[in-house]
Amino acid sequence: MSTRSQFITLLAICTVMFWWRLGHLPLIDPDEPFYAETTKEMVQGNEWLTPTIFGERQFEKPIFFYWQSMIAMKIFGDNPFACRAPSAAAATLLVFLTWWFGRRMFSPRAGFCAAVVLATGVEYVLMSRLMLTDICLALCISASVFCFWLATEEEDKRDRWMILHFVASAFAMLTKGPIGLLVPTIGSIGYIWLTGKRSPWRGKGLWIGILAWLAIAGPWYAVMFQKYGMEYWHRFFVHENWERLTSAEHKHSNHWYYYLMILTAGSLPWIPLLIAAVVRAVKGLKTDNRMLFMACWFVPNLIFFTICNSKLPTYTFFFFVTIALLMGHTMDQWISNGFRSKGERVLASSLAVLQTVLVLGAAAVVSLILPPKESNVFIKDLVPVIYTLAAFISVPMVLLLMRRTVAWAGATVLVTAVIVIVMQYGVDDKIPIYTSTRDIAAEAVKVRQPGEPLVTSSFIARAVTYYTGKMPEGVLFFPSGPEHLQPYFTPHPPLKMVRGADALSELASKQHSVLCILLSHDLAHLEVPASPLHGRIEKLHTQGSRNLVRIKGGI
C-alpha cells in the first residue's frame, strides 16, 4: 500500500472512530461537565490564565487543555461537539504521529499497522470521544519519547530531536503537571543506562531544549505562583499530585493488577495480537534495542503508576501507543513471514477463540444472570451491543484460525467500526438516560419556582451547574463519619455542603419548598421511615437513576 493510500485510509478510520456524530450525545457525568463548566466560565469571563469553576479558581489541571477547549468553544459554540473536539483532534494527531514514528522505527507497513491498531482499540476510541485531558497528555508524552529515541539513533540530527523532545515535554507539563515530565524521563534514563549508549542530553540540544522547555511551561506556572503563592503549591503540587500518589481517591481500583487488566481489556478486539506481540518483545529484549526501548518506556512507568494509590483507566492512556507499536511490528511480521512458530500460532488462535467466548459469556451473564436492579438497567440495555460484538468478533476469529492474517486484520478493524455504529444508532437514545443530567436539568429549569432553592447530589453537582447555568444552593451527600466534611477529593468552597437528611430538612424548614435533582441512592436515604423528610417528598420526574423531586418546606 502506498504512503498516500495509507494516509487516506487512516484519515477515513479516524473520521469514523473519533469525529462521526461526535456531538450527538450529551456530556457524560461527572468529568465532562466539570471540564465543560470550567471552560464555559473561563470563556464568559475572558479568563485565559486561571481555570475557574463555580466562580472560583480551581487547580485540578494546568492550562493547556483549557486553552484548546476555549478556542473550540469560541469557534463552535457551547455544545458537546466543541467540548470534545480537542480530544478528537489529539487522538487523530496521535494516530498519525504513531504512523510516522512506526515507519521510522520499524517499517512503513509496521507503522501503518500500529496506527490502525491504535485507532481501533476499544478504549482508545471511547476516550477519544470524551472531553478529557488524557488524550492530549498521551500525544505530548508520545511525541517527547519518540523524539528522544530519534536523538539516540540519528547523531547528525541529535540537537534537533532533543529540542523537540523538550518542547513536547513542556506541553505535557502544561497539560497535566509533573507527570508530563516524569514519564518521558523515567523511560529515557532507563534506556540509556541499560544500553550504555552515549547520552543525548548534551551540547546545544540540551541547553536550547531546556530554554525552550522553560519558555513554554515556565511562564504560566510563574504567573500562578506570582498570583497565588503557596496556595497554588499546596493545592496543585501537593494536593492534586502528591496526595493522589499517596492516598487512594478511588479505593475500588487500588489493586496491583488494575492497569494490566485495563490495558488488556482496552485492547479489544486486538487481544490475540497484543499477547503475541508482548511475548515477541520479551524474547527480543537482549538482541533488539527497539524492544528494549519499548520496555523501558512501559515497565518502569507501569510500576510507578501501580504503586500510586489513586488509579483510573485514563491515567496510563499513553501506554496504548507503546503496545500499538509492538502490535504493528508483530502484524507486519505475520504478514511477511507468517507465525514464528507453531506455539505462536496456537497462542494467537487460542486467544482469538477465548476473546470471542468471553464476549459471548459477558452477554450471557448480563442478559441471564445479572439481577434486574436499577443499577443494572443500563448494562442490560447494552446486551444487543454485546451480542452484536460477539457475532462480528467471531468472523476475524475464523479468519485467524485459517491463517489469513490480512483478512483477519481487516475484519478486526470492522469490529470496532460496528461497535461505534451500533452504539450510535442502537442504544444512543438510552445512553443519556443513564449517563447525563442534561434532560432532567432542563426539566428542573421549567418547574422551578421563583426563589426556590435547588439542591443536588454531589456526583452530578457540576453537571447541574453546567446545564442550568446556576450553581445549586446545596450539595447533598451522606458522610461516612464525622471527619467526612465534603464529598470531593478536590474541595469546591463555593458549594454549600448539605450533610445528610437532617441538614436537608433544616434547609427545607426555612423555605416554602426545595427543588432537588437527586440520584436514586440518595433519594432512598431520604424516603426511609426514620428520615425527617419522610412523607414530604413529591416526585416530579425520573430519568434513569436521576430524580427530580420537591420537598415541602416549613414556611
From TrEMBL:
Keywords: Cell membrane, Glycosyltransferase, Membrane, Transferase, Transmembrane, Transmembrane helix
Glycosyltransferase RgtA/B/C/D-like domain residues: 61-220
Its membrane topology: Multi-pass membrane protein
Principal location: membrane
Annotated TM spans: 81-100, 106-125, 132-151, 163-194, 206-223, 256-279, 291-308, 314-335, 347-370, 382-401, 408-427
Enzyme class: transferase
Cell compartment(s), UniProt: Cell membrane
GO molecular function, one term: glycosyltransferase activity
InterPro entries xrefs: LipidA_mod_glycosyltrf_83 (IPR050297), RgtA/B/C-like (IPR038731)
Enzyme Commission number: 2.4.-.-
Annotated Pfam families: PMT_2
Name of this protein: ArnT family glycosyltransferase
Native source organism of the sequence: Prosthecobacter fluviatilis
